[in-house]
Design a protein that fits this description.
It is a single chain. The chain is of the alpha/beta class and about 800 residues long. It folds into four domains: about 25-210, Jelly Rolls; about 225-325 and about 335-400 and about 465-600, TIM Barrel (Alpha-Beta Barrel); about 610-750, Rossmann fold (3-Layer(aba) Sandwich); about 760-809, no CATH class. The chain is about 30% helix and about 20% strand. The strands form ten sheets. It has an eight-stranded parallel β-barrel with strand order 15-16-17-20-21-22-23-24, surrounded by five helices. The protein is globular, with a radius of gyration of 30 Å.
Length: about 800
């Protein structure tokens, strides 16, 4: 069998990077290897034979004695360089399907083997993770086994011959069954040979570990540095989590992270690991991890998870001091400590202080992420994703809901109402029901309140309580870490049960010169906009640092969307999980292609804001509660398809930021607080433009039903400004988007660059942003290339899932 040339690999001589498994043998064989291109058997013969004779599975030069058959030779190409023959596999362009080497074992192989060790010899160029999978059953689309042990499995662009080792348990199946793939390997290029052993001595595993480079040169660098952060498999589950596994993952993944341009490594830091006994701090676990990271040229970005359920030390969890949050839906507690327990404040202060004394002066911290509550240390109440992350990893009661049922919450609520109303009689009038005392009032599910004001009182107290708790955390962190950037973890998508008030958290972080890390990006570009835009707007307006993080998985196309968001939101910190990026060759290619564009990030030119309906959000569930059944976001996305936007909620409007915008678009919600409507009325009369949809029908009014301002705008009383209300149907929602675009095109007060962007012709799922320096940033988020038509009779073609920039005239 012969293969056509790939034309890409390798381009440099490929020397060995480590001593031979049999040094004397290598002295004899290496000159032969370098003299005879294509003869790889000499290299492979240095494989250990102390315990068993090796079996050649496959080689880049065909060998009739090989014990495996390549099932997809049409995808394989020769990658000849100086001194060694190697094979490449064609790179996939499908973000959901990787290229894989597929092998079938010949009859008789693996007979009586309990274990299988694979030694994959490869010419190391490029970046990625070699991932073999072994069949577990005889079904054509059956299950696959991951290795139980693996060493030296990352591609680190060393331009050397390297060996990756993998060990599998051999399943009991009928290997001779027809039509089956037995072995799949992804992430592998430059294949020289694959050898199999029933076992290897520990010395060989240790030698493979030692062969992994400690220092590598990045493939990409920025001229305008920023914090680019990833995980590397440092374990956070277990009692205790495995230090050995964590250090092994640091050994393998940190060089790859540095190669890809990352600047820091993130991991959870658990309270129980720092303080296993009260007032007895033990930093030895994290000290070893930190030193391993430092030795490999990166810095540390710890997530300090103190008051989350799974991080609690036993001495605290079992004490009378501990009170867990209780949901109103079921009256059931979970393991996340109550944020209304003021006794916890001393623990937060103590632990942060001890951590700061230990690490701030070491020069290892790039930044610190705060973990005040939530399932994983987020600045929010528990949600549904972390049901297994209770105390010591046990299952806990967790769901999206109202976590205000513990006794300390009830006491706090009573004090809040007493401060707000002064007398129980005034509260009774506002709530439409009588009470004998503030002490008898307990929080209850919002939909059970009789008046809008009563419901808003409950939701405001609930949300403000979380904001105040997170602000306390930030203040204590700043005391403990005066010279380190700190980030609050802001997540969710706006549902009020989370307790996340994005603009309040941004405002509190301004007071401590901190930032916010958004934890809610996905594979959907539009969801990345409407889930993050309020926080991103607030961060820019309050002049604080901004970070972005995927909520979970994203594909190679999501990598492109996240870069676009980072560039056009001018982020300071870009984070991803190693499992999302490192094992996906197409994601890595997109990452390396678009990484240099981060040097061009800048603040966007945004003249159009969308009103974020926070008051309506607290009064019903139609705006944000259900992730794919919301009223606001789909309509906001429709506006974003036509023009770049910011979000403004009541807090940002009260702070005076509305004056920075020329147009305010409503998409959902028609109930605002009276003072916000008054501010909006003054802004319209001073020259602002308001655009409203046809639904919700009726007037835009205060919580108490007052609609004077709205009626005056509808009559034309807008001073120097303008008021437009769409009169058509709200379905399809594109009708409203078209209406808004036409109003904007007719607005002479918008800048020349905004008007130009509005007039650029492009297909759907192409998005445009204009930066303050006049640079147009274009994203084609389609499976096909896109033709862009500029108003000055010029056009450009954007490849699928790509970013391009152009200076506007």
């Amino acid at each position: 069998m012969s293969f056509p040339p790939s034309g890409r690999f390798p381009r440099k001589p490929i020397p060995r990077n480590r001593p031979s498994l049999f040094p004397n043998l290598l002295v004899v064989l290496l000159p032969l290897l370098l003299s005879f291109q294509g003869d790889v058997r000499g290299f492979a013969q240095e494989a250990p034979t102390a315990l068993a004779k090796p079996v050649l599975l496959f080689a880049s030069t065909p060998d009739p004695e090989s014990a495996a058959e390549l099932l997809n030779p049409e995808q394989i190409r020769q990658a000849r360089g100086e001194g060694v023959a190697a094979l490449d596999i064609m790179e996939s362009t499908d973000p959901y399907q990787q290229s894989e080497w597929r092998f079938r074992f010949k009859e008789g192989f693996l007979k009586d083997w309990d274990r299988l060790v694979l030694a994959i010899d490869h010419a190391d160029e490029g970046a990625g993770v070699i991932r073999p999978l072994l069949a577990r059953d005889n079904h054509p689309s059956g299950e696959w086994s991951e290795p139980t042990r693996r060493v030296s499995f990352t591609r680190l662009n060393t331009h050397q011959l390297r060996r990756a080792l993998f060990e599998f348990e051999v399943p009991a199946l009928e290997w001779a069954a027809p039509g089956l793939t037995h072995l799949r390997i992804s992430g592998l290029q430059g294949l020289v040979s694959i050898w199999a052993y029933p076992q290897l001595p520990e010395a060989e595993w240790k030698e493979a570990e030692d062969s992994v480079p400690i220092q590598v040169e990045p493939l990409v660098r920025l001229e305008r540095p920023m914090e680019i952060t990833c995980t590397v498999g440092i374990e956070d589950i277990g009692n205790p989590p495995s230090l050995a596994n964590s250090l092994a993952n640091v050994r393998e993944y940190v060089p790859l992270a540095r190669l890809l341009g990352f600047t820091s490594v993130e991991c959870f830091v658990r309270w129980d690991m720092l303080e296993p006994r009260e007032r007895e701090f033990d930093f030895s676990h994290y000290d070893q991890i930190v030193e391993a990271i430092r030795a490999r040229g990166l810095r540390w970005f710890p997530n300090l998870v103190i008051t989350s359920g799974y991080s609690l030390p036993s001495w605290y969890y079992e004490s009378a001091e501990n009170t867990g949050l209780v949901c109103l839906e079921h009256g059931q507690a979970n393991d996340v400590p109550s944020i209304w327990n003021t006794a916890n404040r001393r623990h937060v202060s103590r632990v942060l202080e001890a951590f700061g004394k230990r690490y701030e002066g070491k020069g290892i911290l790039e930044a610190v992420r705060l973990g005040p509550s939530g399932n994983f240390g987020e600045a929010q109440f528990p949600a549904g994703a972390g049901s297994v992350l209770g105390y010591q990893g046990r299952k806990m009661h967790a769901h999206i809901g109202w976590w205000a049922g513990d006794p300390l919450a009830r006491e706090s609520f009573g004090r809040f109402l007493a401060r707000r109303y002064g007398s129980i009689e005034r509260l009774g009038e506002a709530w439409g029901e009588p009470f004998a005392s503030f002490e008898e009032i307990a929080p209850r599910l919002p939909e059970t309140y009789r008046t809008k004001r009563a419901r808003l009182d409950m939701t405001a107290w609930y949300t403000d309580s979380m904001s105040e708790w997170c602000a306390f955390w930030a203040e204590e962190a700043r005391k403990a870490l005066p010279n380190t950037r700190i980030y609050q973890s802001s997540g969710g998508w706006g549902f009020r049960e989370s307790g996340t008030d994005f603009s309040a958290q941004a405002e509190s972080m301004r007071k401590v010169s901190g930032g916010i890390r958004l934890t809610n990006e996905t594979d959907s570009f539009e969801q990345n906009i409407y889930a993050t835009r309020l926080a991103a707007t607030a961060a820019r307006l309050y002049d604080i640092a901004l970070g972005s993080e995927p909520a979970g998985y994203h594909s190679a196309r999501g990598t492109v969307a996240r870069f676009y968001n980072a560039i056009t939101a001018n982020v300071d910190n870009l984070y991803t999980r190693h499992g999302v990026l490192f094992s996906d060759p197409l994601s890595i290619r997109n990452w390396l292609r678009d990484y240099p564009l981060l040097d061009l990030r800048a603040d966007p030119l945004v003249e159009v804001a969308i009103y974020y309906p926070e008051t309506s959000n607290q009064l019903d569930d139609s705006g944000f509660r259900h992730l794919y059944a919301w009223g606001f976001n789909a309509r906001a996305a429709e506006i974003r398809r036509r023009v770049d936007i910011d979000f403004l909620d009541e807090r940002l409007i009260r702070a005076g930021f509305l004056d920075r915008y020329k147009v305010l678009v409503f998409c959902w919600g028609n109930i605002l607080e009276a003072d916000v409507l008054e501010t909006l009325n003054r802004w319209i009369h001073a020259g602002g433009t308001v655009i409203c949809p046809s639904y919700p029908r009726g007037a835009y009014e205060t919580v108490d039903g007052e609609a004077t301002f709205f009626r005056s705008w509808a009559r034309g009383d807008t001073g120097s400004g303008a008021f437009y209300r769409f009169k058509g149907d709200m379905e399809p929602i594109s009708l409203y988007g078209d209406f808004v675009k036409q109003v904007l095109l007719d607005d002479p007060r918008l800048s020349r660059w905004t008007q130009t962007a509005l007039r650029i012709g492009h297909p759907e799922r192409v998005h445009l942003s204009v930066l303050e320096n006049g640079r147009l940033v274009m994203l084609n988020y389609r499976d096909q290339e896109a033709q862009i038509e500029f108003p000055w009779n010029e056009s450009e073609t954007l490849p699928a899932y790509s970013i391009q920039m152009k200076q506007l005239r």
